[in-house]
């Protein structure tokens, strides 16, 4: 069985696949077969149909555009999905909606939730694109908040979240793991960097609402990467609260094969990546310079004040009973998966 996940970045949520599954199902992954395990991530979209092999879905979510063809989905083996929106999208029974597969860390002693662990301070876990484009490190330092890059090594990210009293999260898996570790969390979102479907899908899986607080653009360099930046009022701004009815329409399945235009777009992205990486490296060096830090100082203090105000807003946390019930179902589903795919 092969393992499939989003490998374009080293975002800790996606990279959890690389170390979690080999610990849980080493024998199955070592057994040669045409099956492809699709686990942690929002991976159920049209492009998944292009991956060769029969898909085995476990705790995966959807939300990024069109679905694969019905004929492709019919061949999948679906054990569970992230939440009820994904289940409905695929026409599955409600019991297939459990929770994100990242909660299987409960099966690994060194990552398991420790009720008696000491906790202190607040962490800020941005979306990986915000980590690349924005300048929240200095405001976090000014606010006394620990900045946790989603590109940090996975164990370090989980340890930072598990050891906090509060998590301000723009990263979905930052929220997912905060809830697992019983750390109250507050969702935030920068313009154009929140996918309401996947967030609401997760929140509904735990009987929680979802209404994030808007993060403003930090500086002129970040504004270059935001499609529709809006002016910041200087105070707390809540974004609209999505509901299940917003996603009643099923997105159309991909009806056409890979076209020349699609291949050209992929090629252009590959060419653009090193250019973007070079630009971001220059921006990071500029932001780290003393003159820039000094000129950004006043705005950094304002943004630090916003982070402090956000930390005083109502936080989210699922009930202990709901959390335990989801873990039990997830583990039972894993046991069924192991029984269905015995190592050879």
Explain this structure to me?
By secondary structure, this protein is of the alpha/beta class. It has 13 helices and 9 strands. It has helices at 12-24, 26-30, 70-73, 84-89, 128-133, 137-143, 154-162, 172-180, 196-205, 220-223, 260-288, 290-310, 320-340; strands at 2-4, 35-38, 54-60, 77-81, 122-125, 146-147, 166-169, 185-190, 213-215. A 5-stranded parallel sheet has the order 6-5-7-8-9, sandwiched between helices. Strands 1-2-3-4 form a 4-stranded parallel sheet. Helix 9 links the parallel strand 8 (185-190) and strand 9. Helix 6 crosses helix 12. The termini are close together. The model is unreliable at 255-268 (pLDDT under 50).
Strand and helix map with partners:
Layout: E1 2-4, H1 12-24, H2 26-30, E2 35-38, E3 54-60, H3 70-73, E4 77-81, H4 84-89, E5 122-125, H5 128-133, H6 137-143, E6 146-147, H7 154-162, E7 166-169, H8 172-180, E8 185-190, H9 196-205, E9 213-215, H10 220-223, H11 260-288, H12 290-310, H13 320-340
Helix pairs in contact: 6-12
């Amino acid at each position: 069985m092969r393992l499939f996940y989003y490998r374009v970045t080293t975002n800790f949520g996606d990279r959890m696949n690389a170390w979690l599954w080999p610990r849980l199902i080493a024998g199955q992954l070592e057994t040669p077969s045409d099956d492809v395990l699709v686990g942690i991530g929002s991976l159920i979209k049209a492009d998944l149909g292009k991956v060769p092999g029969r898909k085995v879905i476990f705790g995966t979510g959807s939300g990024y555009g069109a679905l694969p063809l019905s004929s492709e989905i019919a061949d999948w083996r679906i054990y569970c999905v992230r939440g009820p929106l994904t289940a409905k999208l695929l026409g599955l029974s409600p019991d297939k909606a459990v929770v994100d597969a990242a909660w299987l860390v409960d099966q690994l002693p060194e990552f398991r939730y420790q009720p008696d662990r000491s906790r202190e301070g607040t962490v800020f876990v941005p979306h990986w694109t915000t980590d690349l484009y924005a300048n929240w490190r200095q405001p976090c330092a000014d606010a006394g908040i620990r900045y946790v890059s989603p590109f940090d090594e996975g164990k370090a990210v989980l340890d930072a979240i598990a050891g906090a009293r509060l998590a301000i999260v723009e990263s979905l898996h930052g929220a997912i793991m905060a809830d697992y570790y019983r750390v109250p969390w507050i969702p935030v979102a920068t313009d154009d960097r929140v996918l309401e479907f996947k967030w609401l899908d997760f929140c509904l899986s735990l009987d929680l609402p979802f209404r994030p607080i808007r993060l403003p653009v930090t500086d002129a360099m970040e504004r270059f990467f935001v499609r529709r930046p809006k002016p910041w009022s200087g105070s707390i701004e809540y974004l609209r609260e999505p509901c299940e009815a917003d996603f009643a329409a099923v997105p159309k399945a991909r009806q056409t094969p890979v076209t020349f235009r699609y291949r050209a777009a992929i090629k252009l992205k590959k060419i653009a990546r090193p250019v973007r990486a070079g630009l971001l490296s220059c921006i990071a060096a500029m932001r780290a310079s003393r003159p820039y830090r000094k000129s950004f100082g006043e705005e950094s203090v304002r943004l630090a004040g916003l982070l402090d105000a956000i930390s005083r807003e109502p936080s989210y946390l699922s009930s202990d009973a709901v959390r335990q019930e989801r873990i039990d179902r997830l583990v039972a589903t894993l046991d069924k998966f192991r029984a269905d795919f015995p190592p050879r």
